[in-house]
Amino acid sequence: MIPFNKPPVTGNEEVYLLKALHSNKLSGDGEFTQQCHTWFEEKLGCKKALLTTSCTHALEMAAILIDIQPGDEVIMPSYTFVSTANAFVLRGAKIIFVDIRPDTMNIDETLIEAAITEKTKAIVPVHYAGVACEMDTIMDIADRHNLFVIEDAAQGMMSTYKGRALGTIGHLGTYSFHETKNYTSGGEGGLLIINDERFIDRAEVIREKGTNRSQFFRGMVDKYSWVDIGSSYLPSELNAAFLWGQLEKADEINKNRLASWQAYYNELKELEEKGLLELPIIPQGCVHNAHMFYIKVNNLETRTELLAYLKEKEVWAVFHYVPLHSAPAGLKFGRFSGGDAFTTKESERLIRLPMYYRLEDNEQKHIIEAIYAFFKK
To answer: Which end of the chain has fewer CB atoms surrounding its CB within 10 Å, N or C?
Structure first.
């Protein structure tokens, strides 16, 4: 079976894990954590980067930082992972779902303003497949309505919007280093990106269980104590060591994935021209990271049949999110603003093909031939 995903391994992870093990600093914020922080701050151009135990926790920190209170409303797409909504629901917010654009599967920026009420606190754009939302429009709306913007860039490492790294445009941004992402910190992991300086000091406190421990270790206070709410969002130094092995070869991983993405696109273009499927669209001004390659077939029935056929051919392809607004918790904690013209319909057509670092040419050829054979059949 050709797997849907293989976690990336570059070769140096084991060396750095052993170094971390012998450093007498396993609990985090050691040498490797600092190296990762510096890399992100220089590469992304953000004010502050803080590794977290997951992107879920980075989102939870963001919700605390913007002081989400019960009754606040947060606007986001329904086509996203549950963590995007959960982070704000945990603070008592009501989720306002907005329809997506069919070309990118991202939130439709033209529908956001109509969803704003006096209770709206934030907009959370999700950069699906590492392809940027229309951030100029979103930031303009946020500025005019005095709203926070938190970018869910879980899939967006190495992607840009008009030359700016995803996650660095809003007030806050989040990344994921789960094993399914382009870069992993050993299975789980995340990053909080801080672009608004007023959040830096408090973010460090929240990440350290509500204490000023980071200031203590920098010699800024003579003892540390409980000063705010917080939780255990600090990842192990082993996670940082594993991630550092990936960041050293970030460009190599990115180049390899982009080559696989382009090969899919070139070989499947003929089926799109025949009207049998649709391929991803990358808008002008967006540079993507080949996080995933998806196709969209004509309807749910075709998707079900194609997935079953690919499984017979030993190819593990998958569909993606079930829209949150149709889920039991989505019905309880949120509401859909306007009509669902595309969210459900487009989600039922989408298939994610195997995509990972060092996807072999013969594997990719087998996948493509299986898709052609299905439509010929």
So the answer is: C
